[in-house]
SET domain-containing protein (Periconia digitata), 482 residues
Amino acid sequence: MIRRGRAEGWLRERIEGLPRWANFNGIRFAGIKIGPLPGFEERGSTVISSSKLVSGEAGALLTVPKELILSRQNIELFAKSDHHLRELLQSLDDFGRTTRGAVLIFLLLQATICCPDVSNVGVHNPLTEYIKFLPDELLPTFWTEEEKDLLAGTTLEPAVRAKLNSLLREFESVRTATAGIRWCAQHWWDEDVGLVTFDDWMRLDAMYRSRALEFPGVGDAMVPGIDMANHASGEATAALYETDGDGNGVLLLRDGKEIHPGGEVTITYGDEKGACESIFSYGFLEDSLDSAKVMFLDLKIPDDDPLAPAKAYVNNAAPGFRLFDKDGRIEWESDFIWLVIINEEDGLDFKVKQTIDGKREVQCFWNEQELGGVLKLHEQLKETAFWDVFQLRATVLVQNRVEEQIDALRATGDPVTTATVRYGPQELASKLRALELSMLQKAMKTLDNEKAKLLDSETVQRYLGLIESEDEGAEQEEVDFT
């Protein structure tokens, strides 16, 4: 149902209609326009300066009326005058009250309103036409199986697999929740003439995931025009976005910036985002990127851990650890790992408590005090005399997992590609593999150094029995004296 424009001519015609739509709906342009960057037409449309822009002289480059901001709050306002939208949101319960759920179902309804085969469904509003201007994004969820195989050994491989499973669950949940609505059953889900497929749901997800920005006072939202701006990090970021005193979305030139006519006006999607997330959410990598920046590696509680079931039950942290590049040094952080490396002999304990309504729940205790959550465990361990020992266990566990990931990347090498693999996915997968392997190798060196320092710790050496404790020495001297 959601039309995908592959023909270059149709795409050009579609985007050329955006200024007319924007002007009609009160969007104001000042010294900029939206279209393909000269010399880089294959990259699609972006925000371009139509006159010389100088910070301090230029005001708001783009002003978007607050009622055109596609946010959860505005969708709820639209629902007051559109009973079809209102019954959709109500049918989805908690999912319909999230920003993501509200935006996706709103976009699906707008696509339905635009469909020539459907009549008397939904209320036409200014944003109904906007969905026609959103280009298709070649995110990894749309890669072919052969192209996804290129990700073997990278952190993007499990992320894409998990996302597809999550999208399928969402799609089935939405279908089940709305199947009882008469017009949905007819136009969306009918076996013979139903218009909505899983591919449509993936396209809606791609629209939202690649274009949602966090606006002050609004939260995650899609803002027409501003969400056409491309990303650039660091000093290359030309403009910033925010809301003005009236709640309108505005695009402003950064201090010290000057852009000549025909130059690109870029924003940042988040400088701290790693290579994996850039491909996952936006389908690109910056040309200047020389580090994977951030990697998340999953961890499992060992099967031979007698406390494994109880640990899994109480855990509320992400099951893994995050590697990140901090000024050229690779560091890691995790709440989950501290739960994995401690045991009953250290002071960890679990008890079953019966609640008032007769149900049972598992409680976690550290040194006979109720812990109150895994996220507090790290601070508790730092206060103990065996902190160096716990750090050593965690470091060894992280190092083993990093080595395992390196082996996985090396085992697959650079997968052989065929003529059916597109250039974009091939190039992105190859660069991601190189960036992640380099970061993992740097992490191994850092972890080796950390492990060596911890092994020199007096606390660790006493724990390992490499040196005698004072009590043991005193006892031995007393025995010898006797």
In short: DSSP finds 18 helices and 16 strands in the chain. The radius of gyration is 28 Å. The first helix runs from residue 8 to 16.
